[in-house]
Amino acid sequence: MTASDWKKITKQLRNKPAVMQKFLKHSKPKDRKTGIAARKCERCGRFGAHLNQYNLNLCRHCFREIAEEIGFRKYS
């Protein structure tokens, strides 16, 4: 089940609280602890190529765009 499917179903079940509770009990997506989907970029929301050094939580694309603004320099 994709995230968009999850949102559609929860939107439909808002008016039916008993059915919603049963659905959430059995079908709720798991919280990710490891793997590629455990962290995402704070700026754009991408999952892959994540830089966690210095508590940046950025993907490499966003890091390249804002590196000089936050004080990193390119040496070569």
Can you summarize the main beta sheet?
2 strands, antiparallel
Give the helix level as a range of percent.
25-40%
* Strand percentage: 5-15%
CATH superfamily of the largest domain: Ribosomal Protein S14/S29
How many helices? The count is 3
Structural notes for this entry:
The chain has helices spanning 3-12, 17-27, 60-66, and strands at 50-51, 58-59. It is mostly helical and 76 residues long. It folds into two domains: 1-30, no CATH class; 41-76, Irregular (30s Ribosomal Protein S14, Chain N), CATH 4.10.830. It has a two-stranded antiparallel ribbon. Strand 1 (50-51) and strand 2 (58-59) form a beta hairpin. It is elongated and about 60 Å long.
Describe what is shown at a glance.
The protein has helices at residues 3-12, 17-27, 60-66, and strands at residues 50-51, 58-59.
Summary keywords:
76 residues; mainly alpha; 30s Ribosomal Protein S14, Chain N; 2 domains; two-stranded antiparallel ribbon; 37% helix
How is this fold's topology laid out?
Layout: H1 3-12, H2 17-27, E1 50-51, E2 58-59, H3 60-66
Antiparallel strand pairs: 1-2
